[in-house]
Amino acid sequence: MEAVPGEHEEVEAEGAMLWTLQEAVERQTLQIGVSACGATAVVDVLKALGIEAAPEQVDRCVQTRLRRNESPLPDYLLSRSEAGATHTQLISGAEEASEGKVIGRFFHLHPPRRVPLVRWLAHWVRRGAVPVATMNMQRAVPKGEEVPDAWHHQLIFGVLRNAVFMANPLDVGKYEHVWCFAYRQM
Fold first, then answer.
1. Looking at residue 149, what is its pLDDT?
2. Which of 1, 29, 108, 109 is positioned for an S-S bond with 43, CB 3.0–4.6 A?
3. Which pLDDT does position 12 carry in this prediction?
4. How far apart are alpha carbons 172 and 186 in whole angstroms?
């Protein structure tokens, strides 16, 4: 089957990559601690913007909250509901860890919106933004798998056609249950 003239260019125009897949393998930060996927994503945001920051410093700035595994059941359950970091903590943590060189913005995608996500993300990436996805992992559980108890934050290092490429872990994601926020250097 022959491609329709101009079709390839349109698809290419929709894509944008911060890193190639090989660069992502080499540059991504592996999870820096328990419940620290958000702080890990911020470490990679700063890397993508050319700002070096120690993972421990970023985690302190983000103020990742941990589960209190040894506490009485009511406190333990409360700690599970608060574990990790919110988008607000990630944005302020990135601003603090970069000493004000980075700003962030959260983009609500709920209630569901008719947004061509790949083109929208590519638009922001081409303008110097570094997106992070916040995903409700309970909404897309494969049949037979255990339901996770957490949300998950991942750096988006690129988009092509109908694919979103994410780090920590490296993944090509479905984007049915994704909320996004993006960072830019000031």
1. 75
2. 29
3. 53
4. 29
Residues in Cβ contact with 150 at an 8 Å cutoff, skipping those fewer than 6 apart: 35, 83, 84, 137
Closest CA to 174 of 159, 163, 158: 163
Cβ neighbours of residue 101 under 8 Å, at least 6 residues apart? 49, 51, 185, 186
Instruction: Please tell me whether the overall predicted TM-score, pTM, comes out greater than 0.85 for this model.
Output: no
Which pLDDT tens digit goes with each residue over 93-140? 999 999 999 999 998 887 888 888 889 999 999 999 999 998 877 777
Distance CA 168, CA 25 (A): 10
pLDDT tens digits for 45-65? 999 999 999 999 999 999 999
Encoding tokens for residue 57?
Answer: 């410093």
d(CA 172, CA 166): 6
Separation CA 127–CA 29 (nearest Å)? 23
Q: For residues 96 and 92, what is the distance between their CA atoms, to the nearest angstrom? A: 6
What does the alpha-carbon distance between residue 171 and residue 185 come to, in Å, rounded to a whole number?
A: 25
User: Is CATH 3.30.980.10 the classification given to domain 8-185?
Assistant: no
Q: How many residues in total does the chain contain?
A: 186
**Unique residue bearing structure tokens 């996004």:** 180
Q: Is 50 exceeded by the pLDDT of residue 11? A: no
